[in-house]
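Write out the 3D structure for:
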Amino acid sequence: MDEWRARLRQVVAGWGLTPEEQSGIVDELEQHLEQDFDEWRPRIGDAAARARIIAQVDEPALREAAVRPRHRPAMSVQSSRAAAPVRGWAALARDARYGWRSLRTSPGTTAMGTIALALGIGLTTVMFTIIYGLLLRGLPFEHSDRIAMIMEANPSQREPELALSMHDFFAYRNAQRSFEAFGAWAPATLNIAGDERPERVDAARVTAAALDIPRVRPALGRLFRTDDEIPGGDLVVILSYSLWRDRYAGDSSIVGRVVRVDGQPATVVGVMPDGFGFPREARLWIPLRLDPASSPWGTGTHVSGVGRLRPRVTIAQANADLGRIARQIESEQPATNQGVRTVVQPFIRATVPARVYALLYAMFGAVGLVFLVACANVANLLLARATHRAKEVAIRVALGASRAAIARQFLVEAVVLSVISGALGALISEAGIVAFRHAIAGQAPFWADFRLHPQVFAFIAAAALLASIVSGLLPAITAARSDLTDVMKDQSLASSRRGRRLSRGLVIFELALSSALLIVAALTSKSVMNLRSIEPRFRTEGVMTGHITLPTRDAERQSAFFNRLEQEVARLPGVTAASLSSNLPGPGWSGGQAAVEGRTYARRRDRPNVRRLAVTPGFFTTFDIAMSRGRPIGPEDRVGAPPAAVVNQRFVDENFRGGDPIGRRIDLSPDDTIAKWVTIVGVMPNLYAADQGSINRNDPWPAEVITAFEQEPRASATIAIRTAGDPSSVAQPLRALVASFDPDLPVYSLAPMRDVLAQSRWEVRVFGGLFVVFGVAALALASIGLYAVLAFTVARRQREMGIRIALGAAAADIIRLVVRDGAAQLAVGGSIGVMLGIGAARLAGAVFFQVRATDPGILAVVIATVVITGLAASVVPAWRATRSDPVRSLRTE
């Protein structure tokens, strides 16, 4: 210890002070440094503590603070200029260097603060990158903010989104004054064949104006012209870059080649640039050919409108313009357009579902809470350092340092810490974005670009700056308010009482936010587990699925083809059962309504909602579905026979109230024109329906109706094949079988049924997983904050603890004293957090599945987790308190 005392006297002797001044300064600094030495020695050892004390003695800032106020009047003009205080950027640079050296003297605090802030910044940046890449960046086109979607709505019928009839589209296009380009499009999936194997691709039927709207020139060839839209003309197509590259090996002579699209010859007139998918993930474009004279108003093809606004025309003005036209159509066509209004929205806002908007911004709010927890954690650590350095700060103030300079120094230290954390946070966010892209592969729209754009780096910089202000402002104010008289007068605990109160408040804040996030994380975890453990009540193992779509619209040819296909598929090697259906159980149910014969309904929407499938007789064997009563769909349910249906038990319970449904009739017509009566011939168990609507309602077992596939002519069918071994082994034989029927006909979307079911749950799995990460991160940060505060409290009360032990206090008493302090903060923060968590869970309900925001089991688990984690964070400081040496404590007194 004599080494640093000698060094201190040597340093002070070089300051040019009078002997009296030297003696006073040395006495004050020795008292302060001795206290630091006693606190550091038990933790880092004598040698390291002595080296740290000597480093403090050699700090130039302390020397400048001592010399400047005492010698300014006696200096010469030249010396005064040389010793003038550093200002501006030079002062900030000096403070930054000093701040970095100061942070290096507390590696533990610096490491914890850096990790906490980096985690907060990194997770927040991940969510901002997702929102920016999907919602804020815009379409990758010129002036993309002027591209809008045009739809219709009928509020009186509770129909917020309606496609335009082709008659309405032409009326809007011819009379509107807001758009410089006004087009229409309709999604499609088409078969493309030719020299290569047939393939089913996502496509778009578009008018020539619709492809002009993005203002993107084709990589090869040309865009559509208005004469390409004339019905009956030669068919032309445009290929996407990926289709041209993968299917035609990037052959530059593709323009002018004839391919077959849905069995018709079509001439390739262009290839679009790489990444172009407008208007929605299209890989092939064909002209949209509309003939309004061919059908009555409001019937025929329905389309989505798309347009490019004229310069200086707003969305509101476009809505008013088309609203005027809609009212005129309503007056002329009341039978079809009564109550119909137009809705003009920015393209992305109209394309991305409202629930996705709400979910993403709710998650951004959640990760913002994690960021606040991280900032509060760092503020706590810096506040502890500020309290620990109270004597140093007070002496610097007494030696002439302004309070503004003291506050600035602490803020600069927070900025230095935030800069380091921002760099580390960028690495964390990059890893998170890579994982997110992998998790949603194939689900994002064509314009989504999830990577660290310059705007994202600007967000990281802003987040780091905000973190430095939030985490550094309170310690800076606390340090600047230090009073030399109070500090030097206090030899025990009084100087840290204000800091402890602030620290406890911050810990309570952290615990409240982390508890709230943990509740949401636990609810989403339970949702994911519920989805994974759900029993669909039909076979998923050993079943291969695929889809096929016929180009012909002839009902007899469709029926003959599908009958032959089902028979031949059943004969393939290894196949034990096969069926065709309109779609798959689980994610493939279609929606509709069913009216029970003999009942009256005041309005159309009062009819019961049902999920529907049309199946061949082999469906029940393929998916191993046993009947509860009656019979399944059978060979007798063919064209010309009375239409038959099988309903599930939920439908029976809701509509027959314990009565026998066999032989009763239900109307499945889509409108009020002609009734479509079917007779119930059997009852089956409730089958899992995984469509998003039912998940949002936490109802995976809705009322279901299955009808006969052969009695409902259709061009598309889903193939399900049950095999004795690996289901993927039938993929190639199935393709070969279909090719033997028609070489231009592809089998697409081949996948095992278990994978199809798992894919339908990706949204809950991905976003639920993010909520879990946020909750766990928040709890970890809060636990670190609680531990840091209690450890700091114990360190500051070391002499008190030693005295208590010297007076006879047992180790259990000391542990109880410290743990009680932590438990009080846990109780307050956890209680507030539970209330916040229940409210937050209601906002995040889109990713919940069969759980309630007030689930008592979840709340109990979260409370227990927070309590156990918090008490664990309290035990280590409590145990350290019992190691206080009474002799050393009394000596320091």
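The two ends are 18 Å apart (CA to CA).
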